[in-house]
Amino acid sequence: xxxxxxxxxxxxxxxxxxxxxxxxxxxxxxxxxxxxxxxxxxxxxxxxxxxxxxxxxxxxxxxxxxxxxxxxxxxxxxxxxxxxxxxxxxxxxxxxxxxxxxxxxxxxxxxxxxxxxxxxxxxxxxxxxxxxxxxxxxxxxxxxxxxxxxxxxxxxxxxxxxxxxxxxxxxxxxxxxxxxxxxxxxxxxxxxxxxxxxxxxxxxxxxxxxxxxxxxxxxxxxxxxxxxxxxxxxxxxxxxxxxxxxxxxxxxxxxxxxxxxxxxxxxxxxxxxxxxxxxxxxxxxxxxxxxxxxx
Length: 295
Ligand SMILES: C[S@@+](CC[C@H](N)C(=O)[O-])C[C@H]1O[C@@H](n2cnc3c(N)ncnc32)[C@H](O)[C@@H]1O
Hints:
The chain has about 300 residues and is α/β, with parallel strands linked by helices. It has helices spanning about 5-20, 55-70, 125-130, 145-155, 165-180, 195-205, 230-240; strands at about 25-30, 40-45, 45-50, 75-80, 95-100, 105-110, 135-140, 160-165, 185-190, 210-215, 220, 225, 245-255, 270, 290-295. It folds into two domains: about 5-100, 2-Layer Sandwich (Transcription Regulator spoIIAA); about 120-295, Rossmann fold (3-Layer(aba) Sandwich), CATH 3.40.50. Helix 1 packs parallel to helix 2, helix 3 packs parallel to helix 4 and helix 6 packs parallel to helix 7. The longest helix has 18 residues, at about 5-20.
């Protein structure tokens, strides 16, 4: 199949889902076919093209032409997802936009970072968290730009706490809160390490109804190396200590070979959740998601 037919058939499959949900941000191609070592995300009339292996200028032109004719795409942003220095096609100039997802607004930066500010594979998980959030106290750790927080707060959460190590992302969370008219007095942002926040919350006798833990596979803080495989029992046990008796933890990560070390966890029930993977992320599951409760 040529590139245009490939993208067209993917779009045909997804159109009912995109139209029914009025989605402005979705994945049109998910690296599922060896013809194209790419994933392509659409944000309104912009395309973000993730490159997993070098592609020729000719192929890039063909993709751009096809996306222009199928969807009226105007700007193209290429992201090098290989771990090597490779030549990638030239991106459009710096651009920030606001997109809507299920009625929520998010500030998206198409040009300046590898990630845009919204992880599309958790679209349905966010909606599910919203459905549980009315009058609840929510803790969103590794919050990034606060997308889970925004859904919870818009759905009537009593209070939200968003924790992220990065100053840039804490500012981005505040921007997204403001975009959705959510008051900072009920929606706090903490620039902190998650495990440090757990200690702080324990000292303050904070407890939570919903705790979201969606960490990176690896990260570094003050010379310490975090790895989700090694450190997830500390994270989950720390969260269980702060969880109200009927509360829940949503724990997710993107480490392909992840194994939950149940023997290192306090008594709890763990359910692996696959029903919230959206249809634009077909193929290899994009994340491992678990719902954890106290026992
Ligand atoms: C994979 S992103 C999280 C995505 C987010 N849950 C979402 O759905 O939008 C990882 C985030 O964790 C933050 N981070 C990394 N190490 C951290 C730590 N030790 N404590 C708190 N945040 C951390 C990073 O700054 C980044 O924003």
